[in-house]
Amino acid sequence: MKQLVYPAAVGTVTKNVGESSQLGKELGADILEIRFDLLLKSVSAETDEMIENQLISWIKEAKETNLQIIGTLRTSDEGGAFIGSEEERFRFIQKIIPNVDFMDIEQKSSNENILKCRETAEKSKTKIILSSHFFNDTPSVEKLEEIIQNSFEKGADISKIAVMPKTAGDVLKLYQAGLEFETNKNSLCLIAMGEIGKQTRIAAPLYGSVLSYGYIDEVAAPGQLRVDEIKTGFKLLGF
Question: CA-CA distance, 152 to 138, in Å (whole number)?
Fold first, then answer.
């Protein structure tokens, strides 16, 4: 496994795990994010055991690249596709955590579920990303700072915030909040979605962001750039 250098370009895998993972590596991805919620839409599994076996199989395919892996099983209300119960979702998450390098969990998940994931992650040295998504607006700077601080208090290794800016000023709010935590090295992921926020896919590392998510063969979020475009942008900024 290669040594991770920040900022890191994350290639999001949404289909054909083996092929997409290899393509992501060729495009220059530093990390692969496996979107289990999107992948499961095409799986017909009758039991939890069958689903768990499929999850582990996808991880093994992605690991053939020797890149680090982020696991994501996103809820539908935060832009994902998982439609089962929270109990069921966290049962799968607990199976995923020991097999990946990072696990993305929604910050608004219950404290009990986050604590259980934290305990499992510590045993396998997996890092926890606590994420918050705002698809309709951008909270105030004060609110963003509060969310970031709360993430760390809940045990996040990386606090991830994605907002939908309506003006350039909204993007600046995200940057300003990031600067307040710039001493927390390797601990923020700042994303502004859509056309107005597209610049953050490359420029956010200037304000403390350490991960930038890009697509491999299909866009997984509004405003995503392809992985190789992110890497080119990083080089232009001296990263």
Answer: 20
Is residue 118 one of the residues assigned to a domain? Answer: yes
Instruction: Output the pTM of the full model.
Output: 0.95
Domain assignment present for 3: no
pLDDT in tens, 36-89: 999 998 887 778 899 999 999 999 999 999 999 999 999 888 889 998 899 999
Give whole-number Cα distances, 136 to 83, 89, 148, 188, 194, in Å.
21, 25, 19, 21, 11
One DSSP character per residue, the chain reads -PPP-SSEEEEEE-S-HHHHHHHHHHHT-SEEEEEHHHHGGG---SSHHHHHHHHHHHHHHHHTTT-EEEEE--BGGGT--B-S-HHHHHHHHHHHGGGSSEEEEETTS-HHHHHHHHHHHHHHTPEEEEEEEESS----HHHHHHHHHHHHHTT-SEEEEEE--SSHHHHHHHHHHHHTTTTSTT-EEEEE-HHHHTTHHHHGGGGTB-EEEEESSS--STTPPBHHHHHHHHHHTT-
- The CATH number of whichever domain residue 72 belongs to comes to 3.20.20.70
Model confidence over 75-110: pLDDT tens digits?
888 889 998 899 999 999 999 999 999 999 999 999
Residue 6's alpha-carbon distances to 102, 121, 238, in angstroms, are 14, 21, 12
Tell me the residue range of the domain where 30 lies. 8-236
Asked, for residue 155, whether it belongs to a domain, the answer is yes
Query: What total of structural domains would you count in the chain?
Result: 1
- Say if 214 falls within a structural domain: yes
Residues marked active site are found at: 133, 160
